[in-house]
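Lab notebook, page 48
Experiment: co-folding of the full assembly
Goal: obtain a model of how the components sit together before planning crosslinking
Operator: M.T.
Materials (sequences as entered):
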Amino acid sequence: MHWSPTTRQMEVIIGVAFIGLALVVIRESLLLGAGWASIGPQPGMFPFISAAVMGLCGLGVCVQALNHGGGGRPFADPSEFREVLRVAAPMVLAVVLLPYLGFYLVTALYIGLFAAWYGRMRWYLVLPLGILIAVVAFYAFEQGFKVLLPKSILYGYILPF
Amino acid sequence: MDPISGLALGFSQVFQPYNLAFLFLGVILGLVVGVLPGLGGTSGIAILLPLTLFIHPNAAVMMLAGLYWGALYGGVITSILFNIPGEPWSAVLVFDGHPLAKLGRAGLALTTAFVSSLFAAFVSTLLFTFFAVPLAEFALNFGPPEIFAIMLMAFATFVGIGEGSSPLKTLVMIVAGFLLGAVGLDLVTGQPRLTFGTITLLTGFNFVPVTIGLFGIAELLVSAEEQAREQIEEIKARLGWHDLVAAVREVARRVWFLLGAVLMGFWVGVMPGTGATPASFLGYGMARQYSRNPERFGKGAIEGVMAPQAAADAAGIGSLLPMVTLGVPGSPTAAVIMAGLFMWGLIPGPKLFQERPDFVWGLVGSLYVGHLIGFILCILATPLLAAIMRVPYAILTPFIVMISILGAYAINNSLFDVWIVLIFGLVGYVLRKLKYPAAPLIVALVLGDPTESALRQTLIMGHGSPAILFSRPISGPLMAVAILLFMLPVIRSLVSRRRPQVQQAS
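Observation: model returned without errors.
Model output:
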């Protein structure tokens, strides 16, 4: 990471994002009709008003950020930001793998590997813990509550989950 | 139904073993969530929400409300013993609670907080019991203009007296919630709205994954930052009889003062939009203002523990009152519980008292019993609860993430909802860093449809003119208050601009 944004830059980015979102919604609601019809207000009216307010506020946030003096601070302290990435990346990975490995395998692997890697705990202690939690979850949800959670691609071939 | 026979029905509900078990479970989970600094009561309720689909609504609401009370108690322990707030509403307890603990009076500080909480709970629940029916009966006469005016007032409260965030950012979050709520099929015509031609968006955004993401996941990421900082200190405490006796004596000496804090907290809770967190700060300010020796504050003044905790607890209970009677949540936490009501197929509002007295009065009864359970558990098990703080973050985080994924998936069996959790978690983290408040978005998402339909019906009644909102006897004054609240930030900035020196000095 060479580019580390300042708080002010982040404020403007988010403000512009809100303006962009507002414009998209305004276009959609005008297509739906944002006026008055025989049924009363048309479906697009409420989104139109909301989006208009959103756009104006987004603009206001940008103006405030650019006028404000103290916005030059970095958005996140590098060491803090690294921690956040180290927590967020495995989270994203777990969700990406969910359709392939299924809920129970992901649970066991995610808990075990994350504790071992991030928490620097002994893998032969935490991996069994992850498996235990997954097994308990399997019996509680699949058998007890009868909730069908995502299964792995091996489901039905060699694995029961 | 009059309050007395209502309460009788309520207690008969609470003491059914099935309901009592879930209430107990809720309080215990709340205590755990309350002690853990990375996870708040609101997130806890949101994460648990989908799982309540599998139990009876009466037990479900008791469990979720019980979690709220548990978290109100649990946050105290972390604040006083560890000097870090376990919950936003316990943050002020750090100021005087931790100094007291350092002076070797941790036991007294903790028990005083618990006794104050219990006192506040009983007074506020009594208020709740006797105000609920008249308020609901009053609200039965509300038409669309009144309902819209009340909703608008709820959102105006966020903007006008929001918790230290910029009014513009609060407003953006409110309309963002409205827009998320508007996605899907239109209420009146059934046309697809804002779906951009996709089928996935036809059912709209469910509030549960959004809430889990914005609160639960975003909170986990924020606490990841704190992992980079220094280690925590802990003061050990074991509570004994003598602490309890001393605490009751401290509370009894200041009972009138405490009653004031409770009434103030209850009122803050009932006001739509604000909840336990601002109430606790106001309670602290009140204690310092009326103290004979305000210089002791910050060094271990027992009133600085008592008043905020009593006010916070009273606000928590107060915030459920407008939720049940009007369908307008009094706090973000109440908004999430209200989302649960919709999920269970109940419509919060005045008719609930007629249609489901067992549900409403069961909830009221559980307010009494839940608080008592929380109090007893805290007195008996504080050292055990404090030990939860030692569960490593590296195990807790994946565990919470997996429960969140499970909950989000279970609502509609859709992986799309799991992605919503993740995306809103990541976006929520950035927004949180920039001090965008998450609560208004959730409240707006939950109230979006009722607000919109009230507005549309109002406009139909007024033949296209919003003037009807101002001409009716109840909605008129409500609209005036709402507009005043919306204008409050503008007025405030005009006043401070006129006196620039004063602002510089502060």
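Interpretation: Residues 93-139 of chain B form the longest helix (47 residues).
Next step: discuss with group before ordering constructs.
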